[in-house]
Amino acid sequence: MNKPTIRIKDIAQKANVSIGTVDRVLHNRGRVSEEVRVKILQIIEELDYQPNMIARTLGTNRTYRIAALIPDGTIDPYWQESQNGIEKAGKELQIYGVQITQYRFNQHDVQAFIDQATALAQANLDGILVAPVFYRESLPFFEQWHALSIPFVLFNTQIEESNSLSYIGQDAFQSGSLAGKLLHYGQPEGCTFLVAHIAEDIANSAHLLGKEKGFRAYFSQQPALASSYKVISADLKKPGDISFFHQLDRLLDHYPDMKGIFVTTSKAYEIATYLQHTPERNIRLVGYDLLEKNLAFMEEGLIDFIINQNPQGQGYWGIQFLADHLVFKKKVALRKNLPLDIITRENLAYYLEAAQ
Amino acid sequence: MNKPTIRIKDIAQKANVSIGTVDRVLHNRGRVSEEVRVKILQIIEELDYQPNMIARTLGTNRTYRIAALIPDGTIDPYWQESQNGIEKAGKELQIYGVQITQYRFNQHDVQAFIDQATALAQANLDGILVAPVFYRESLPFFEQWHALSIPFVLFNTQIEESNSLSYIGQDAFQSGSLAGKLLHYGQPEGCTFLVAHIAEDIANSAHLLGKEKGFRAYFSQQPALASSYKVISADLKKPGDISFFHQLDRLLDHYPDMKGIFVTTSKAYEIATYLQHTPERNIRLVGYDLLEKNLAFMEEGLIDFIINQNPQGQGYWGIQFLADHLVFKKKVALRKNLPLDIITRENLAYYLEAAQ
DNA sequence: GAAAAAAATGTGTCCGCACACATAATTTTA
DNA sequence: TAAAATTATGTGTGCGGACACATTTTTTTC
């Protein structure tokens, strides 16, 4: 039942050569006659040889330098979570010689991004994990890395044709559809829903629009719903300011049957703050991310559901994918879609627990 | 920035002894003078020595034998998933010398369980993972294993005071509350909900009752709900049989305002089959587990939400915990609560993907 | 106080693999 | 065809640690 482990030595014996020769074909170091090479390859196949990665990392004492280019977590707790995930993966992979350096930039400062991305080029890296929040400004760096043959993984924001090794994140469109389902399920009667983008540069944020598209598609694709539900969207500025409240006042006045709001960013708490003062409207609220402020409002019942974008998981898997590629020489998927976790008061605790 | 790794050799040098002596104090093998022992311990502390587990597993060529005592997956797809999770963990841990043998029993046959649990005792094991679906019959084996100092981990079904190393699973009560929330959210108007236990020996299944308790608590704990929602429960037999349909007929006749059903087992599809014929009632349905049959009905819209008990994850983590204890000598949590994943048509794909 | 016993400490090999280096076999060159 | 160059193959050491065994030091014993 327990097949014995196959070692290089076993292959060498079976092929009547020394382990050095086997080693050479395993690593394509050349200097092996074609005849022997084929024979060894065949035996490897036959015996289903699986190199012992443990021993390998012990043997080659090499290290892998990975840079993580991400927004500063001290400014936004969302990115703090990503940093945690990156550090978690870093700890797990330390024994395999993986060394991670984080290059952090202010997510509202394009120049800071450019500076960090430039600084990172000095470091003689084996791999890069990047959250490309600035679309346009990212492209030249992608080209540069690609020219230098440094593999890089994107996360959080997808950019097509970037030549990246992989993308880790969620499907924005599907995420919007899910939000549609959640609001619809809670308001079976037909009404108006608002898609609220809060304080983001929409034009440069493709995934926010993807969410809106998915949300609208949920209703338009089912003829029965298309007639009874109306979807509007708004680009709200200056949360916290009094003008923010006025914008909402106007929208609610204009659409008296508005019964649900889908916030495409992690700022659902800004809307919840407003709704606190108009409880009689009984508006359903769905947003993103397990921020403290969102959780507090969920506890109070003002936010019904939160879709978890799992920033920690994104960081974690981003590093894991790079390690799979660099250290373990595994093929990695071009894309990893993290699950769209639905969080509500009753199942919240376990997601927080799992994030440890 | 990158502190050099501390090895046994470094400690030995600093203490002016040989690596053999350091090794002896590291493993409490005795035969070291107290004076030297203290000195070495102090240096270990000071240098924050972290043994290289990689090298350690290479050095000690020992293997760890783990048995998995679980219901047969060929009878029930739910348990097939658990087996997959166990095998997945087994693959990952193979290089650390972990060997897993599965002991499978028919989940409806107490004697089969006893036979397998007895057979397993012959095997000279280092650890056991068990799904104790038979409460009473499990207890003597727990005692036996405890007496033999074989660490064991429970999953799926919790049994207090079992002396187990850990329990992996979900919180049944909270799971029921979550179901309550999902049905309530979809029927804001007040109505009757049915808790359906299908074809299980309720008396011997504490966690089914836990789910019902949690469900009822959701409504009774909020005074506003307690008055407008009524919760009934039923123990339904012989699914697939015509009598099963009759039982449901009677319940629906008796409670014309029944607007939602919570199925505590993975057999929501049995109810969905019935509801197909009475679409006009518009009854919400919440159940458990990503079985093919459930997914088909979810696709059709007859099942609204499924709570994922993640049998694969339970098996996976059960083995991981045993390995953490045996191989890596880590302290493991007494309990690991897996998240209560809410699955609906719109986010289903990613959970199936993640299960690969 | 020397031999025997016990305690303390040191040394060497192996785990599976990578890689530098040594050696053997073959081909090229003059 | 012998020396030189090239190609093919074999050997040895180290990675960090475990463990068996060897050796040295200290303590008993008579």
Instruction: Trace the largest sheet of chain A across and list its strands.
Output: 2-1-3-4-5-11
Largest sheet of chain A: 6 strands, parallel
In oligomeric terms, what are we looking at? homodimer
Q: Say what the CATH topology of the largest domain in chain A is.
A: Rossmann fold
The poorly predicted ranges of chain A are none
Distance between the ends of chain A: 37 Å
The total tally of domains of chain A equals 3
Mean pLDDT of chain A: 92
How many helix segments of chain A? Answer: 15
Keywords (chains A, B): DNA-binding, Transcription, Transcription regulation
Protein name (chains A, B): Substrate-binding domain-containing protein
InterPro entries (chains A, B): HTH_LacI, Lambda_DNA-bd_dom_sf, Peripla_BP_I, SBP_2_dom
Organism (chains A, B): Rhodocytophaga aerolata
Itemize the secondary structure elements and their pairings:
The structure is a homodimer of 356-residue chains.
Chain A: H1 8-15, H2 19-26, H3 34-47, H4 53-59, E1 64-71, H5 77-93, E2 98-105, H6 110-120, E3 127-130, H7 135-147, E4 152-155, E5 166-169, H8 172-186, E6 192-198, H9 206-220, H10 223-228, E7 230-236, H11 242-254, E8 258-263, H12 268-275, E9 284-288, H13 292-300, E10 305-308, H14 311-326, E11 335-337, E12 341-343, H15 348-354
Parallel strand pairs in A: 1-2, 1-3, 3-4, 4-5, 5-11, 6-7, 6-8, 8-9, 9-10
Antiparallel strand pairs in A: 10-12
Helix pairs in contact in A: 1-2, 1-3, 5-14, 8-9
The structure holds a DNA duplex (30 and 30 nucleotides).
Domain HTH lacI-type (chains A, B): 6-60
InterPro entries (chains A, B): HTH_LacI (IPR000843), Lambda_DNA-bd_dom_sf (IPR010982), Peripla_BP_I (IPR028082), SBP_2_dom (IPR025997)
Pfam family, one (chains A, B): Peripla_BP_4
